[in-house]
Amino acid sequence: MDDPEDSELVRRTLAGDRRAFDALVRRHQRNVYRIAHGILRSASDAEDAVQEVFFRAFRYLPSFDPARSFEGWLMAIAVNQARGLRQGRRGEAAPLDPTGPAYAQSAAPRTEDRGHREIQEAALEALAGLPDRQRDAMLLFLNSDLTLDEIGAALGCSKGTVGVHLHRARIALRRALGRWARPTP
Fold first, then answer.
1. Which of 28, 36, 85, 88 fits 46 for a cystine, CB–CB 3.0-4.6 Å?
2. End-to-end CA distance of the chain
């Protein structure tokens, strides 16, 4: 049997079917976590954010506009929740979290994995060093199926502005990761 569309799961949730909301959570939980972790750079903070995002989504689902993308609406909640948590802890150093999704979980990586891990760590650090809007746009672009218009709606800006943020983020990431770039022929 095919998985129902988000819109159908939203309709069923609003009609009282809790299993439909559980299906929405299962479908989108990983991407919400990736967005929150990318903004917060902490696994425990990201997990807290995910819980709050889905609590808010359930609470405010009756006000959801079915003409919009559910994923876009949910990612906007995720970005806002993570930004709020980040604002609440300004001044605290937020180190890169080795338990995050981009890190290998092995305590002792194999020799051939060390180079790959070094690149991953450099990429995460470079991403974390981007200005907030560029980082948030790149995280949504990489971790969701949203269109540029939907990313703009989630970030509160236009499609063109999203394109500018992504372009500038790519340039900054290329500069930061230039050491690992392959020479062009």
1. 36
2. 49
Q: Within 13 Å of residue 159, how many CA atoms lie on the same side as its CB?
A: 5
CA proximity to 29, closest of 84, 75, 62, 73? 75
Listed residue (140, 156, 129) closest to 41, CA to CA? 129
The pTM of the full predicted model, rounded to 2 decimals, is 0.73
Q: How far is 36 from 44, CA to CA, in rounded Å?
A: 10
The pLDDT tens digits of the residues spanning 84-140 come to 988 876 544 444 444 444 333 323 344 456 667 787 788 888 888 899 899 999 999
Q: Residue ranges of the domains in the chain?
A: 6-97+112-180
For residues 55 and 53, give the distance between their C-alpha atoms in angstroms, rounded to a whole number.
Answer: 5
Section 142-160 average pLDDT: 90
